[in-house]
Amino acid sequence: MAAIYIKKDKDGSIEALVKVNTYKDVTNIENRAKTVEVFSLASKLVKEKITNGVYVGYAVLSDGESTVGSTVNRSAGGYDCETIVSYRKKSSWSDCDGSHTGGCYGHITLTTIKESRTKCYVSLGGNQEQIDWIEDDNFGMPYEEYEEEVVEEKVVKKDPCAEAKKNDSIAMTLLKNLLVKGKKDSIMASVASDTVEKSFTFGKDASGTIRTTNIAKGTRLQSAPMSPTNSNFIVQGAGHSHTKDGYAALSPGDIYSFNTANRANGQFRYFFGFASSGDTYLFTIIDSTVFADFVAKYPMNSVFDIKDQGWLENSDIGQDYNMIFDACIRQGYTKDAADEAAQAYVIKEFKMGIALSKSDANGNFKGVFYDTKPTGMVTQPYTIAKATNCNY
């Protein structure tokens, strides 16, 4: 009995290889095929390209007689075929490239694979024989397989608490660098009596060494200058002072200055504030895409009071800020502490994509978090309490 190996092509044609045991079977196959070529092969498998350009395999007979290679088209008749189609998916992971901004660890590519197997029944000498599927490179695959790429971007949001904690650790290391610490100490030495802000930027040069700029001064009407780029190093951030005329914590104006610097230089991700109270605050970026979205939704001129350097009272952010600030004052908070709590609240509520942290006595930065609980009372709608756990 003959064994027949068939591969169904995408154009609908069928390639067939017939392995026969005797010349008697050759006669039966000749009745079903358009062309038959007989080869006398002694002891090896070969792969030949026959005249019509179709690759088929040829196998040695067990008795050493001969093999037959045959190309069969549908028009030859004498057989019935049934195609079974199945689908499966596989996935692969790759990291985000430069086209992805914050908020994405990577993306998953899903590949859809369509597999089709054609079962054929061929009449051989009056007998109906089902073809066995044999996957042998010498005979070609008995089914077609192709991949259709279905790319689905799966944005994996960063854990804001984990991101903030990582940034705090990096910031602590940066601030302990001798050059950066030297600039900070110089500013802190006079910040209690200064009437204008001071600032400097820092970053790494081509060799990886931390560099800083000289300390710059602002004016009574303008904050200290802070360039996001430098010809001698890649700027990673800046430090600046808050005089006694303002609140200790970083301000709404600082948020927009930070965003402007980050848009000009994506490596600019750390912004220190050195307060006249002796406290050191820190802004870091959790998600630059979210940060950009916030600024697009709330442009500076729509929410910032340039005269008071705070949130506009009639803006959504200003109303929430004042609600928390006033609640804190009623609870006995100092103005600096009330401002800190209110800033932390609006940063979280308005999804700014940044984190506010504060240095402890050991130089370790810790996130500034507050719990707000409604009371149901008109005179004191919320109680505000400092939280130890991240609640972004």
Description of the molecule:
With about 400 residues, the chain is α+β, with helices and mostly antiparallel strands. It has 2 domains: about 5-85 and about 115-145, no CATH class; about 160-385. Helix content is about 25%, strand content about 35%. The strands form 6 sheets. Strands 11, 12, 13, 14, 15, 16, 19 and 20 form an 8-stranded mixed β-sheet that branches. A 4-stranded antiparallel β-sheet has the order 1-2-6-3, with helices on one face.
Q: Can you summarize the main beta sheet? A: 8 strands, mixed
- SSE succession: EEHEEEEEEEEHHEEEEHEEHHEEHHEEEE
Shape: globular
Provide the helix percentage: 10-25%
> What's the β-strand tally?
22
Estimated structural class: alpha+beta
Total number of distinct structural domains: 2
Number of helices: 8
Helix and strand topology:
Blueprint: E1 3-8, E2 14-19, H1 23-30, E3 35-39, E4 46-49, E5 55-58, E6 67-71, E7 79-95, E8 106-124, E9 127-130, E10 143-152, H2 160-176, H3 178-188, E11 198-204, E12 210-212, E13 216-217, E14 234-242, H4 252-264, E15 270-275, E16 280-285, H5 288-297, H6 300-303, E17 304-305, E18 310-311, H7 316-330, H8 335-349, E19 354-359, E20 365-367, E21 369-374, E22 382-387
Helix pairs in contact: 4-5, 7-8
